[in-house]
Amino acid sequence: MSIFLHPNVGCIESLLDTAASLSSPNKKWRSAFTKIYCVRTLLSPPKKTTAKTTSRCPSYTVLSIYAGTSDNQLVQETNPDQFRKFVENNGIATALQTNNDGGICSSPSDEDVATEKINNKVSRSPSYTVLSVYNGKLENDFFKIDPKSLTNLVKEKNLDQLQQLDGIHGVAFALKTDSEGGICSSEEDIARRHEAFGSNTYKKPPSKSFFHFVVEAFKDLTIWILLGCAALSLAFGIKQHGPKEGWYDGGSIFVAVFLVIAVSTVSNYRQNRQFEKLSKVSNNIQIEVVRNGRRQQISIFEIVVGDVICLKIGDQVPADGLFLDGHSLQVDESSMTGESDHVEVNSSQNPFLFSGTKVVDGYARMLATSVGMNTTWGQLMSQISRDTAEQTPLQARLNKLTSSIGMVGLTVAFLVLVVLLVRYFTGNTTDSNGNREFNGSKTKVDDIMNAVVAIVAAAVTIVVVAIPEGLPLAVTLTLAYSMKRMMADQAMVRKLPACETMGSATVICTDKTGTLTLNQMKVTRFWLGPELIEEGAASSICRWVVELIQQGVALNTTGCVYRATSGAQCEFSGSPTEKAILYWAVHEFDMDMEEMKQSCTILQVEAFNSEKKRSGVMMRKKTDNTIHVHWKGAAEMILAMCSSYYDATGKLEFLDHGAREQFEQIIQAMAANSLRCIAFAHKQVSVEKHEDVKDLKKLNEDSLSLIGLVGIKDPCREGVEKAVQDCQYAGVNIKMITGDNVFTAKAIAIECGILTPNQDMSTAVVEGEKFRNYTQKERMEKVDKICVMARSSPFDKLLMVQCLKQKGHVVAVTGDGTNDAPALKEADIGLSMGIQGTEVAKESSDIVIMDDNFGSVAIVLRWGRCVYTNIQKFIQFQLTVNVAALVINFVAAVSAGEVPLTAVQLLWVNLIMDTLGALALATERPTEELMDKPPVGRTEPLITNVMWRNILGQAFYQIAILLTLQFRGESIFGVNEKVKDTLIFNTFVLCQVFNEFNSRKLEKKNVFQGIHKNRLFLGIIGITIVLQVLMVEFLKKFADTERLNWGQWGACIGIAAASWPIGWVLKWIPVPSKSIFSYLKWKK
């Protein structure tokens, strides 16, 4: 663009400084005439000036001009009245096709036009001069339409308003968008659009604060009872012993309760933050847009008003907008309207698209008109927050278990309370000096209250220890931990229950393309008629046939080819299959996709989907107005639609029975070599026939001419065979469900290890149609033996999932297409593909496999088992403590009239087992041994016979040892009662520490295997021991303990360490695989 300084620039600048006193119309006219004056001044021959003259100008007003004949409808010769009326309505900048901030180029194509016009002589056509004036400031009305009008336009589906704005292209012009090339992606342009129309993000309800979780922790009734006991104990203690000594008991309970609340709050807060991060990742959808004339993928959050967005089947519409161009577009608006019927979108009757809706058929390009909070979907989403308190099935089962144990604990606590109160008021208890505590009316009221408070606190603390609130916490911790780790292993969990359910999976139904294979496709075979055409031999093919191939590839595709300059490398976009075919056509046949599109007009399109397995297009050639139909799709399906074929010379041959068999053999041979077979077919349609089928919206599907067959190689992923073997070894059956033909499916299945070469293929391999036509009884009989289903439709996949579930299997299914959504929802675990998967498939799934790799599916299976096993480990650890603590306190209370473990000591044990224990055992990483066991399935009890054996064995040992210390401890160790109680407390805690090692392995005898890899476990054990030493040796008054000598410490450690050999011996005791409770039910 020519940029220069004119001698009269000072005069021009003075004219630009409009007087503030002028009215708005006068300002507009003054501006208009100023610009016209500028044009005349600049078109006059410039006088010679010196550098000195130029420097006298107070500032530099930059003028950008071009002149020449304009093709634009708005810049043309017109009479003054028309021009004046247009300027009054639109402003001089619009009349002259300039941006108010000075830009005339919004895309590379505009710059080319501008440059061409600049090269013309300025003096030849003064009436076509376009002027842009920069005066040091940006106008506020850069875009000729306001956000509210755009929002209402789409929201109200107002066609009249759209017509007033000169249609969709008028809106695009107002938004400074090139309908073909999109917007300019400069930082300045994006920032301007953000400022004018907002960003594509939603205002979310504020995150739950740390204080919210503190309040939640205080909602626990037992906490309030304990706080009440602590307050009473504190008040009576201070009254009896004075502030200096009397605060210990009550203060200790306060501190212990504070620790329990703090740990619970921090855990829940961190979990909530973790889910919020995952939510951000799952909502960050990649969208294909056109910017600077080039297709590119950007985040949904980066969409701006004016963007040209490419939509295909399965996509979520990312913003409100208008239909620019496309074919057969149908959207599901049920998320907005609740109506299940699909809505057709076109440029004439319904060009309106809404954010949050789903594309169910066809493809299109849309113009974004509203984003973020200006869309109806945005306003809806701003009021919805993700429920991070989602309860998984396992959590529900554990809550029932917690309630059951809690009821037992309450019963025991109530009995202890009654027994202690009766013993106290009947004078059967003595103080530290051996005197009776209760002497009827002689006893002070304060002493009675203190004794009652101490008894109530002991009973309440038994309830606290008995209720295993650590179980839900353990599930939360292990799920949050595993979700984070699974993200690093290329699996994003969308729904929490899937984490644990995956561990129970007995069958995995997997896709082939992209999951078992690399999805890096390349055309390696091309058959034209019965002749194999070698690579680079395209010159030997008839020109007419080459043109048909180019038309069939360039026009019947959802991909595109972009070339920045004539010598630059081509960039291909679309699905891997589309990219492979486009690459082949460009390099083998020198196809110019843009030229091919310009030479034809597309009349009708039938988009590809996984049910039809083909796509078609009807087009009219501009040179001779002839109408042609092109089909592309699965080779045997296209072949069935053909009655003739072309050979390399362009001769059309009749497709008789012999020729058809020959083509079928070619297809089978390519399929046996693991090639995906695609066929191209063509038919010329008369104008009359086109008019007949125009209203049917269905392309001609019979009597086609076969153009050629291509074989596309998609190699198997590295490591997929091992992943399949690992799953099979773990007792999980792998079934491959693919849309490819039987021969390709067999070849890939054998290569991946799903089939063995000597396997009976008659029962192991079935076609979708055959499976569909079985009776229900036949399906149920055969479904377990089927390993491969070829040429399957999404309905066939759904049917298989339903049959497997009826047989009692826990089914995981992978899917990537929109039509896979029913099967993904029906399955126990839906696994969608992160790369190839549509947004509809991802929304229907529970876990997104980010790299589309079957190896990641096997890792998810291992993680699922890990979650389930970790929770079982913690249950075993927790119930051992519960049984031991309840029995010891109950027996001691009934027999001796006192509890050996005080409220503070029991709260400390509760903290160890509920929180630190959960953290230690719930964060074990998956090991190879997890895949050695068969899957759990649906009916396996949560607490197995193996676990009951370990729990009861360890609990009986602890009860026996601690009751011995309770009744014979003083004489055995020669100590007083205070030291004996400390020995009981210390031994009890150390028993739990040593038993934590036993809980690492439910069945294996070597509990130390892999322990060096779990630093968190070792760290928690270390912290627990250090804190226990502090409790016993340094916090005597807080914990109500006495210091122990080295011998006593050694005795405690020795007694506790016996848990290891006892655990080893217990694991030699055989137990029946069938649950003991099932025998009880049978006897009934």
| Annotation field: number of helices | 42
> What's the mean pLDDT score?
78
Class computed from helices, strands and strand pairing: alpha+beta
Largest sheet: 9 strands, mixed
Please give a handful of descriptors for the protein shown.
29 strands, 8-stranded mixed sheet, alpha+beta, 9-stranded mixed sheet, 42 helices, 1084 residues
Tell me what you see in this structure.
About 50% of the residues lie in helices and about 15% in strands. Residues about 1-15, about 15-20, about 45-80, about 80-90, about 90-140, about 385-390 and about 1080-1084 have low confidence and may be disordered. The radius of gyration is 39 Å and the shape is elongated.
Short description:
Strands 13, 14, 17, 18, 19, 20, 21, 22 and 23 form a nine-stranded mixed sheet that branches.
Topology of this protein?
Layout: E1 2-4, H1 9-16, H2 24-43, H3 51-56, E2 62-66, H4 80-90, H5 92-95, H6 108-118, E3 130-134, H7 147-155, H8 159-164, H9 167-174, H10 187-197, H11 210-217, H12 221-246, H13 248-283, E4 286-291, E5 294-299, E6 308-311, E7 320-332, H14 334-337, E8 342-344, E9 352-353, E10 358-370, H15 376-381, H16 393-425, H17 445-466, H18 470-488, E11 491-493, H19 497-501, E12 507-510, E13 522-528, E14 531-532, H20 543-554, E15 560-562, E16 571-573, H21 576-589, H22 593-598, E17 600-606, E18 614-621, E19 627-634, H23 635-640, E20 642-646, E21 652-654, H24 657-672, E22 675-685, H25 687-693, E23 704-713, H26 720-729, E24 733-737, H27 742-752, H28 761-764, E25 765-767, H29 768-773, H30 776-782, E26 788-790, H31 794-806, E27 811-815, H32 821-826, E28 829-833, H33 839-844, E29 847-849, H34 854-896, H35 903-922, H36 945-973, H37 977-999, H38 1015-1033, H39 1036-1039, H40 1046-1057, H41 1059-1066, H42 1076-1083
Parallel strand pairs: 12-24, 12-27, 20-23, 24-26, 25-26, 27-28, 28-29
Antiparallel strand pairs: 1-2, 2-3, 4-5, 4-6, 6-10, 7-8, 7-9, 7-10, 11-29, 13-14, 13-23, 15-16, 17-18, 18-19, 19-22, 20-21, 22-23
Helix pairs in contact: 11-13, 12-13, 12-17, 13-18, 13-35, 16-17, 16-18, 16-34, 17-35, 18-34, 18-35, 20-21, 24-27, 26-34, 34-35, 34-36, 34-37, 35-37, 35-38, 36-37, 36-41, 37-38, 37-40, 37-41
